[in-house]
């Protein structure tokens, strides 16, 4: 009898919980109107999206432009006019942080979160395209605000491009 009562209780709990749903509050239209049309924040749900920024040197001289382009079927980072310092462990990463002057006046990244896309190709070309899975973009825990050239062996950011949304082409 005790087993039957426990089974019924569990069944009622499961049935009750199965009927629960999550309801998100609707955004306030007035607050959306006050936001500028160009924003440095790219949300994962905003597809298609094109973000672009110029590299600022940090741990090594880094130049060029980074463009992040995401559609429903593709996603990539395009580097144009790109050059950076050599090193083992140099990777291309995305970050929710931006580069800005720190307390000492040196440029530093405002977030320690780094989302690695992979090793930086050593093609010697100033133009490089690094593909990423569009599902990776959807799964980003925070908005992407910068592309970082990071040397994991030295634990140093070589350069960072703060991203701004550009008109869709």
Please give the structural blueprint.
Blueprint: H1 2-18, H2 29-33, E1 49-57, E2 63-70, E3 75-83, E4 90-95, E5 99-101, E6 107-109, E7 115-119, E8 128-132, H3 134-138, E9 146-151, E10 156-162, E11 164-165
TL;DR?
The protein is an alpha+beta fold and 169 residues long. The chain contains three helices and eleven strands; from the N terminus they run ααββββββββαβββ. A hairpin with a 5-residue loop joins β1 and β2.
Please explain how this structure is put together.
With 169 residues, the protein is an alpha+beta fold. Helices cover 16% and strands 37% of the residues. It has 3 helices and 11 strands; from the N terminus they run H-H-E-E-E-E-E-E-E-E-H-E-E-E. It has helices at 2-18, 29-33, 134-138; strands at residues 49-57, 63-70, 75-83, 90-95, 99-101, 107-109, 115-119, 128-132, 146-151, 156-162, 164-165. The strands form 2 sheets. Strands 1, 2, 3, 4, 7, 8, 9, 10 and 11 form a 9-stranded antiparallel beta sheet that branches. Residues 1-42 have low confidence and may be disordered.
Could you give the count of β-strands? 11
Given as residue ranges, the uncertain stretches (5+ residues, pLDDT < 50) are 1-42
Distance between the termini: 68 Å
Order of helices and strands: HHEEEEEEEEHEEE
| Radius of gyration computed on alpha carbons | 22 Å
Round the mean pLDDT to the nearest integer and report it: 75
Q: What portion of residues is helical?
A: 10-25%
């Amino acid at each position: 009898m005790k087993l039957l009562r426990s089974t019924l209780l569990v069944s009622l709990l499961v049935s009750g919980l199965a009927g629960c749903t999550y309801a998100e509050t609707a955004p306030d239209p007035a607050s959306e109107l006050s936001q500028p049309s160009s924003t440095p924040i790219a949300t994962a749900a905003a597809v298609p999206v094109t973000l672009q920024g110029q590299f600022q040197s940090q741990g090594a001289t880094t130049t060029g432009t980074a463009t992040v382009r995401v559609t429903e079927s593709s996603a990539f980072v395009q580097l144009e006019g790109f050059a950076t310092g050599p090193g083992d462990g140099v990777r291309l990463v995305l970050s929710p942080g931006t580069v800005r002057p720190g307390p000492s006046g040196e440029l530093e990244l405002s977030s320690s979160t780094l989302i690695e896309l992979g090793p930086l190709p050593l093609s010697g070309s100033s133009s490089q395209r690094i593909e990423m899975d569009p599902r990776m973009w959807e799964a980003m825990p925070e908005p992407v605000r910068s592309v970082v050239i990071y040397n994991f062996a030295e634990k140093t950011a070589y350069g960072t491009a703060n991203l701004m949304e550009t008109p869709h082409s």
